[in-house]
Amino acid sequence: MHSTSTTSIFNNPKLFVEGWYWALPSKKLKIGKVKAVKLLGRNLAIYRGASGQVIAVDAYCPHMGAHLAEGKVEGEGIRCFFHNWKYDERGICVEVPSLGKPLPVCIKTWSTAEKYGMIWVWVGEDKPSKLPFVPELENVEFDYILGTRFVKNCHPNVLLINAIDAHHFNTVHNLPLEIVFDSQNLNSNAITFSNITRGGDDSWLIRLIRPLYRNEVTYSMCYWYGNTGTVTLGPDFLHFYIIFALRMLEDGKTEGQTILVTRKRNGFLGWSVNRVLLWLTQQVGNYFAKGDTQVFQTIQFDLKIPIKADQSILQFIQHVNQQKALTWKTWETVDSPISSASLFEHEQH
Ligand code: FES
Ligand SMILES: [Fe+2]
């Protein structure tokens, strides 16, 4: 009856969902530079070619295993520091200087993308699907800043459910209204939980701000690949957007980065307004992060006694467990998919 077991992907320190993962901020990788990045247990060399495109390759040179981040970017390719073999942007060996011709070897490359000021890597053998995005901003231009980078002593899945742990909004964050979520699948890798209550008539604060809301208090969380969450919250006339981009470290710990987003506003005035709004968004994010910082350093997550208020958490666990799992470090596909029996266990509560 436990919500976590070795067969489930959720909260598993050895498995993760195939998907897009943040690698490093775009600003940290200038044209012609290469960086060593350890992502989900695997070592990569990520570089920016002369045209500006970002290329991610497995770190170790097929010749003798030198780390390619010690090498040099040349055009769209990379040259190994050690014996100067060169690989192009497809990872194909195009030069072995001592032989005067290339050898038929290659390094593995991974799809990359840049969005919200971040370089993302597609981790998986399948064709990449959609990059994480804020649902409300799918087709509009936006502005962003990177917020804080942090490490937590618990699994990314566990950290992320904080945003839909309806009960703790009252106990930890003193929110004077009851939050009730309705879930909606955006696609097979993304699920949205949106608050559907107006609630809180007994609170003077809620009565005061009531005129600002058309229907309910806007608060929704969209989860992508079980590892990145985008929060949308605020009154009708001004929505704040906070992205929690997480990835798993050794032993199921979390390394994360917050990204603050707002709609694009034109002109110098628009730009100035956005600086203020993004700063404000960061304060909103900090407020929610601050209340329960400590509990995530010590938690041993195991939802043994789910109550009604935990319904969304169970749904999220199920959503994560239904996705394609890969293995920590090797990035190999997991052969035995989660049995439907173990999913069913959650539904019985
Ligand atoms: S180890 Fe890379 S060229 Fe020899
Ligand atoms: Fe919280």
* CATH class membership of the largest domain: Alpha Beta
Average pLDDT, rounded to a whole number, is 90
Structural class estimated from helices and strands: alpha+beta
Distance between the termini: 9 Å
Explain the overall architecture.
It contains 7 helices and 20 strands. It is α+β, with helices and mostly antiparallel strands and 349 residues long. It has 2 domains: 19-123, 3-layer Sandwich (Rieske Iron-sulfur Protein); 135-343, Naphthalene 1,2-dioxygenase Alpha Subunit, Chain A, domain 1 (Alpha-Beta Complex). Strand 11 and strand 12 form a beta hairpin. The longest helix is centred in the C-terminal third of the chain and has 25 residues, at 267-291. The N and C termini lie close together (9 Å). The chain binds FE2/S2 (inorganic) cluster and fe (ii) ion. One of its GO terms (molecular function) is oxidoreductase activity, acting on paired donors, with incorporation or reduction of molecular oxygen.
